[in-house]
Amino acid sequence: MASRSKVLARSCLSGCSALVARAKPSRATRSVAPSGRRCLATHAETPIIRPHFADVHPPREKTELDKLLHAVQKKNSSKIRVAFIQWTDVLANQTSPLHAGAIEELLNVPAPTLSEIVRGLDPFNSSDDAAEGLKISAGETQYTATGKFVDVYGARDRQRQVLAGLQTLLRIRSSLVPFTLADYEIAMRSAGAAMDFHAAREFWGNIAESGLQQWRTTRAWNEFLKAFFMTEPLYYQFDRARVAVKARDLYRNRNPLDRITLEKLDRQRFSINALGQEPWNRSLAEMDKDVMRDLRKRVQDRGYRAHWRRGLLYGLDMNEELLCTSIKAFARSSSLHAIKELIFSSYYGIIIENDRDPTQTTITGGHDFPEDSPLRPTAALLEAIAEGCGAMSHIALGMQLVNFISHRYSIPIPHSVWSNLLNWTYLFASKPFGDARRKLGDWASATQRPVDVMHVWEAMTSPSHGNITPRFEDYDIYIKTLLVQRCVVKAFGAINDRCPWRRRPSARHTPPTKG
Prior knowledge:
The protein is an all-alpha fold. 53% of the residues lie in helices and 2% in strands. Mean pLDDT is 84; it is low at 1-43.
């Protein structure tokens, strides 16, 4: 230190350039005097404060919950479902090394945050489903790439995984803050999209177990009924054949069939089942039972009449949406009498007579409703009539009801109503539904043929019914029906007239004529 002081002093006396020396942490600091003369100065030791990093943790990898919350913040529905499934898989897997940490994170998630996560799983707001609105049959899953979208039961595989995740969340969070009523509604929608009506009933019971029984609303009851009776196209996987009332489903103890007819229907059913490789459209609990074997029941908890009484005893407000759901639910068991008496006669004052003979059917009456009445008919009622009557194969009655209500309440008939009637008519006019219905006997009200498809097409495109412009799916049914009727020339004419894009590739590949 002495040698350094001599050097610095000599530099100061000789007038050389200033030298600023850095002080060691344990030594005195040196500074330059404010005067023109440069010299050394000693001061008391001033400790230098340095930041300490002892309490700072190293950056950690993002957990599955972090990825899910990031997707929720970005409102990216395509990533929300993927992240949710990955997160709940860790929660359900007790052997995973991340299980304990994931459970601790879940228990610390606030209720509003959890509700926001559940809200992002609404199946009706799914924009990332590549198979949205696509009907996938059992044969298509065996021979095409669409089989990756569904499981062995024919339900959307993604929806089944989301439902399993929601059940895991409910099981873990049951001891803490339970789901809200809106969360349970979305959970019941997920159960319906996964074709699991047992899960829908479980969620409905959990509402009462969570102390929210007195807060049950008409909307929540309606969501439960939709999922339990598969009344929405999303719930029956956009495949009308899954919920169509077959001829074999009409057999009951109060309405028995003769032995020969019953054996014919059973042989047809066994032949169809023999070609199936997977439990397609079967119940999860009982794989030997088709879904419609439960839906067709009229008694006990599977019958809708008991649920109809329960809804009245709950004291819930009746509105058009609940009545529309009731029409579809009664149609699952082909309860046409209940639809006529309990809904149309009691709430709308519409009297339907002679429904077994379409040529003799009369529809009269109709209450007047104020503009703000929750029961006032709208286009939704026409949709429910087309869906309910179509599923029971009462196409003629459905068309008459749609026309009557449209004229009585001045409601324009939308394209979706006519398209729905056309699809149901084509389904029951084709095999195996048409053959099975004809084996029951010549029931004019419930037996469809290709000519009936053409009648619906003519009514759909007539100016008196709004002159509806058919879409591609409607033309597909129309052209296939023409081919069944051996009207090949007319079918090709429809293709050439309505599909101009077909002519352009043909003209491009046609060899030039020799001049």
